[in-house]
Amino acid sequence: MSTRVDRLVSRWLAMVLPAAVLVLFALVAPAARAQSKHLAPGFDALPADAKVIVAPLDVELFSISAGGVLEPRADWTAQAQTHIRNALKARVAQLGLRSDEMDDASADELAEVLHLHAAVAQAIALHHSFGGAWALPTKEGKLDWTFGDTMKVLQERTGARYGLFTWVRDSYASAERVATMIVLAALGVGISGGVQIGYASLVDLETGRVVWFNQLARGVGDLREESKAFESVNALLAGFPVTRK
Q1: How far apart are alpha carbons 121 and 213 in whole angstroms?
Q2: Residues 6+ apart with CB under 8 A from 95
Q3: For labelling alongside 158, which of 1, 41, 135, 205 has CA 20 to 30 A away?
Q4: Which of 215, 226, 117 is nearest to 163 (CA)?
Q5: Computed over its alpha carbons, how large is the radius of gyration of the chain?
Q6: For the range 180-185, what are the long-range contacts, defined as Cβ-Cβ under 8 Å and sequence gap of 24 or more?
Q7: CB–CB of 177/71 below 8 Å?
Q8: Residue 53's beta-bridge partner residues?
Q9: What is each CA distance from 72 to 13, 43, 83, in whole angstroms?
Q10: Contact partners, residue 119, CB within 8 Å, separation at least 6
């Protein structure tokens, strides 16, 4: 009797378990995929006592001429730096991070290291965030990027375990560009009036590993205005890792 019951149980398990596994996979897989898009494998939160050093902003704004040439605007860039810096301070406070801003002396001394972030962030945006034909098969869709030992000098200089890096470029149509857009629109031709691109990375300074990454790539926003700059920073830091309690 017990043998028959065992056989029935085995058959039931054989039928039910695969379906249960598929259901469980369907429930868990989207969350896992969502996590892997912005977080490095195995990283889900900052340690409670983790100190984060906020690297100097890398920001530059441009005006677009009628012909589409980008012209740097120092006055707009200065406005954006002030607004983004204030927005970052507010957002970091909201997140409850134990953080410091990198001082000017350290930033000057470590400028070469800091500039590496732009190159790596652009590679992550292309090969990981956009992916598709640019995806690297060896990464298997994972946020698997590192600066190696390069960032250790920041840890030694600041005492922080993690570094938050931001890079933003934004452009706006000049009056001549707007006039050109109107004329071409009447002919059924659309041209860009500016685009906002931004990258934010959280890096483990001890290992050099990028543990969180996010980007902006859109045709809205205006960093010359305080309220809109705050919106951009909040969008750029969306999904920033929480701190363990």
Answers
A1: 8
A2: 237, 240, 242, 243
A3: 41
A4: 117
A5: 24
A6: 180/66
A7: no
A8: 100, 163
A9: 67, 38, 18
A10: none
Residue given tokens 């050099």 in the structure block: 208
Residue 233 makes CB contacts below 8 A (sequence gap 6+) with 84, 87, 88, 91
The pLDDT tens digits of the residues spanning 104-128 come to 899 999 999 999 999 999 999 999 9
Tens-digit pLDDT profile for residues 9-29: 444 444 444 344 334 444 444
Q: Is the pTM of this model over 0.85?
A: no
Amino acid at 75: D
Across 134-143, 170-179, 193-202, 226-235, least confident range: 170-179
Q: How many CB atoms lie within 10 A of CB 73?
A: 19
Which of 52, 32, 38, 36 lies closest to 212 in space, CA to CA? Answer: 38
What are 80's two structure tokens? 């954006």
Q: Of 111, 220, 199, which Cα lies nearest the Cα of 157?
A: 111
Q: What are phi and psi of 222, to 5 degrees?
A: -150, 105
Q: What are residue 241's phi and psi, to 5 degrees?
A: -60, 140
The position carrying tokens 């790596």 is: 120
Q: How far is CA 44 from CA 40, 149, 230, in A?
A: 8, 22, 25
Q: Are strands 70-72 and 58-64 parallel, antiparallel or unpaired?
A: antiparallel
| CA dist., res. 151 & res. 215, Å (int) | 21
Which residues on neighbouring strands pair with residue 169, listed in sequence order? 60, 197
Residues 6+ away with beta carbon under 8 Å from 146: 207, 208, 209, 210
